[in-house]
Amino acid sequence: MNITEVYQREVSYGTTISENTTTSTGGFQSPFSPAMDKAINGLTIIILFITMISLGCTMEIAKIKAHVLRPKGVGIALVSQFGIMPLTAFSLAKVFQLGAIEAVTVLICGCCPGGNLSNIFALALQGDMNLSIVMTTCSTVTALGAMPFLLFLYCQGFSGLENAVPYAGIIIALIMTLVPCAIGIAINHWAPRYSPLIIKVGISILLIASAAIGVMAGITIGGTVWVVLSPKLMAVASLMPLIGYLLGYILSTVFKQNGQCKRTIAVETGCQNIQLCSTILKVAFRPEDIGPLYLFPLIYIIFQGGEALLFIIIFRWYQRCKPTTEEEKSIYLAVDKLEEAKVP
């Protein structure tokens, strides 16, 4: 049974969007011609390619090698990424009784590797940047095998989803992520003087493209945006990153990681690769099958970023208000004495 048949069966039961937005996205017809739709898909792939090259330009082979040789932190992060998040997505889909297509959408988002947005959050939280970058790289590589396997495993828990996931499309999307990332690493290693320019260009293109896609999405989905903004999907989108942040921090605490590693693992766990998720949903599914649900990652990233920003504000406030330790006082005293000694 394919995903279209799942949808047709649900519609035959008389469940419509107006009655129950958790069933399907049937009846959605893209206003664009097939040629235009292919052009949009191609543009999405190009944007992802450029973005991943710019991410690769932030990575250094020596730092990656150092963490690979001592992989405890990376191992904990991978367990968090591919253990906590897929299980969280599966559990929330069950608790909120999502429809078949919505469950696939949430599972794909939950099974995605860590996103490069986590590197920015880790920097703001004064985390271990080397670990953050290595974790993002390792989770992306691991996702090539782990993501199809996890989707196959968790889809068994939903009736009619056993054959609904486009595994070939997902693997192709993952390869399209790894190849440009490797190109970026090579550029940063052999021609590092070009890395800052490529990073700036990549970020600029990503911002412009995000705005353009948002406008096109508004034109495309029209009134059916309420499918994505349904209370159940909003609840799932808000709880997934929050649970990931909290459980990632708790797991790293259990394994006695230092403060920097705890904060890094927490944000790496809760932050999903939204660009990859959007590309998979847009490229692997037909518009009439996925409908406006391909915008779910955009809803997710709003909550993902908002919750991370809240944690950053709390952390910064704590840093300002926490009492100075005796060790820090002794350091400040030594510095003052040194400055006095320099005065003639």
Task: Give structural notes.
This protein is mainly α. The longest helix is centred in the middle third of the chain and has 27 residues, at 129-155. α2 runs antiparallel to α9, α4 (72-95) runs antiparallel to α5 (100-111) and α6 (117-124) packs antiparallel against α12. It contains 16 helices and no strands. It has helices spanning 3-12, 34-56, 61-69, 72-95, 100-111, 117-124, 129-155, 167-190, 195-221, 225-228, 231-254, 259-270, 274-284, 287-290, 296-321, 326-342.
List its salient traits.
76% helix, 16 helices, mainly alpha, 344 residues, disordered N terminus, single chain
Radius of gyration: 22 Å
Instruction: Bin the helical content.
Output: over 70%
Q: Please give the count of helices.
A: 16
End-to-end Cα distance: 86 Å
Largest sheet: none
Strand content: under 5%
Overall mean confidence score, pLDDT: 74
- What structural class results from the helix and strand content? mainly alpha
- Model regions low in confidence, pLDDT < 50 over at least 5 residues: 1-27
The shape is globular
The total beta strand count reads 0
| H-E string | HHHHHHHHHHHHHHHH
Question: Quick recap of the structure?
Answer:
The chain contains 16 helices and no strands.
Topology:
Layout: H1 3-12, H2 34-56, H3 61-69, H4 72-95, H5 100-111, H6 117-124, H7 129-155, H8 167-190, H9 195-221, H10 225-228, H11 231-254, H12 259-270, H13 274-284, H14 287-290, H15 296-321, H16 326-342
